[in-house]
Amino acid sequence: MVKEISKNILLTGAGFTKNFGGLLASEMWSKIFNHEQVQSMTRLKDLLVDDFDYESIYYKVINGSYEDDERDAISVAIFQAYKTLDDIVRQWFFDSNSPYPVNIYEVMFRTPN
Predict the structure, then answer these.
(1) DSSP calls for 77-102
(2) Region of 2 on the Ramachandran plot (φ > 0 left; ψ -120 to 50 alpha; else beta)
(3) Of 4, 35, 55, 75, which has the fewest beta carbons less than 10 angstroms from its beta carbon?
(4) Is the pTM of the predicted complex or chain greater than 0.70?
(5) Could you tell me the residue ranges of all domains in the chain?
C-alpha cells in the first residue's frame, strides 16, 4: 500500500490554536496551576508561581528531587491541560462569523501554483 504525502506544509507559531478556540500559554498555565492535584502540592504551586514556563517546571519536577506524588500531580495536570487543548481543536469547525475565521479546508485542498 502506497500512501501519498501532501507537499503542503503549514508552519505554526505560539498561539496558533487560539484561532480554533484553543488556549494560549497563559491559559494552559492556569489550567495546570488550578488542577486539583497541583493545588494540594505546596512545592508545585510555589514553582508555578515563580515560573510561568510550565514545560520547564515539568522538566524540573520529573528530573529533580521531588516526591512521586508531586511528579504524578504535575504529569496528570499537564496531560489534562493538553487533552483539553486537543479536544477543543478536534471539535473545531469552520464558521465564517467567528472572530478569527481560519478556513482549514481551503488550506488542506488548495493546490500550489
Answers:
(1) HHHHHHHHHHHHHHT----TTSSS--
(2) beta
(3) 4
(4) yes
(5) 23-92
Distance separating alpha carbons of residues 31 and 66, to the nearest angstrom: 21
What are the pLDDT digits (tens) for 46-70?
999 999 999 999 999 999 999 999 9
Q: Which three cell numbers stand for residue 94?
A: 469552520
Give how far Cα 87 sits from Cα of 59, 77, 82, 109, Å. 24, 15, 9, 23
**83, three cell numbers:** 487533552
Dist CA 104 CA 67 (whole Å)? 44
Task: Give the separation between CA 78 and CA 65, rounded to whole angstroms.
Answer: 19
